[in-house]
Amino acid sequence: MSLADAIGRPGISPAGNAPGESWGEWFDRHSRTFFIAPAVTLILIFAIFPTFYSIVFALSRVRFTADGPNFRFVGLQNFYKQFFGNDQVHFLGKTDSMGVFGTVFFVVVAAALLWWLYRSLKITSWVGMLGRIISAVMAIFIAWVVAASLVSGNTIGTLLTTLFYVFAGCALQFVIGTGLAFLCSQPILGKNFFRVIFFIPLMVTPLGVGYAMKMVADVTKGPFEPLLRGFGIEDWVWSADPWAARFVMMICDSWQWIPFIFICMLAALENVPRDHVEAAEVDGASSIQIFREVTWPQIVPVAVTVLLIRMIEAFKIFDLPNIMTGGGPGSSTESMTLHSLYIWRSNDIGTSAAVAYLLLILTVVVCASLFNYVVLGQLRKARA
């Protein structure tokens, strides 16, 4: 009997099959597993394994010798010194004195989060409650850092600088990208030309963006030098001012990533059924009312997905501050990724890995909280 006959003939089946099931039927039943298995294997090899392996570095003090790397287990010491040791000011900022406004801010935020947890006791399972506790603890800790450093007028560290890039930058990019997508979805003259122009920054490599923006932002030789001289601020150097440098980083990063949000939101807007919009226009609805009541509920799934992907990418910002300012002035524009790189360059591999893991924990908690408590809520409202 040939193999082809066996595959199509019931009663001849591999072990574990249902009685009378052929090879072909068995393969059809397990085809999804065969197609998924290679992808899962690649994820395990190239993502999960290095993530778990690098925890060995984070829990050790690594020294390179002629015989190779030498590991000495130090436990959580590499993590501890980011919060209480020599690197505390670098990571958290100056938090030794909290002003009146900082105290009031922290008390209000902490009370609101504790009230949110209390209200969740009756409507959430123990698994959901555990997730809310983790999110609340993280939020209270960040609120304390904000209150003790930023609100109290003290220096902030790489933790808050990274969060500034993520939340302020992504909000700006989302608003502008969605607005441009909405304009290009309208019947305006030359919209195809503008679609190509808006998409160009995304094609440039991050290294190219960094050097291009460094030249553009040069107040002595850049294109804005005559404008600054006309306003009498020719002596102003943005790279010497911490907050000016952070805003320049955010604007340059936005120039690169607005096209990503633009193209995704444009695709979502063009997939909104035209008859729904026309029905609202017949009823006399304005453009703003149509967008709020008709268009927005239908593009919410795409919008929140795009924003979540962009936030995950923003946590890893590295190229622009490294090229444009080197993290300066001081460490004002230094992100956690750049912080980890500089420690790695000093051959402190364990502390570098610890900072990278802190960034991983921060990214997972923030993005998971955003998805569970904001995104899913918006999706439920849209479906309702």
Account of the 3D structure:
With 384 residues, the protein is mainly α. The protein folds into 3 domains: 3-55, no CATH class; 94-154; 155-383, MetI-like fold (Orthogonal Bundle), CATH 1.10.3720. It is 71% helix and 3% strand. The protein has 17 helices and 2 strands. It has helices spanning 3-8, 23-29, 31-58, 77-83, 88-92, 100-120, 126-151, 158-184, 191-203, 206-216, 225-230, 242-270, 274-282, 287-314, 319-324, 336-345, 349-383, and strands spanning 60-65, 68-73. The chain has a two-stranded antiparallel ribbon. The longest helix is centred in the C-terminal third of the chain and has 35 residues, at 349-383. It is globular. Residues 1-15 have low confidence and may be disordered.
User: Largest sheet, if any?
Assistant: 2 strands, antiparallel
- CATH homologous superfamily heading of the largest domain: MetI-like
What is the beta-strand fraction?
under 5%
CATH topology term of the largest domain? MetI-like fold
Listing every helix as H and every strand as E from the N terminus to the C terminus, the arrangement reads HHHEEHHHHHHHHHHHHHH
List keywords for this structure.
mainly alpha; MetI-like fold; two-stranded antiparallel sheet; 2 strands
Give a short overview.
The chain is mainly α. It has helices at residues 3-8, 23-29, 31-58, 77-83, 88-92, 100-120, 126-151, 158-184, 191-203, 206-216, 225-230, 242-270, 274-282, 287-314, 319-324, 336-345, 349-383; strands at 60-65, 68-73.
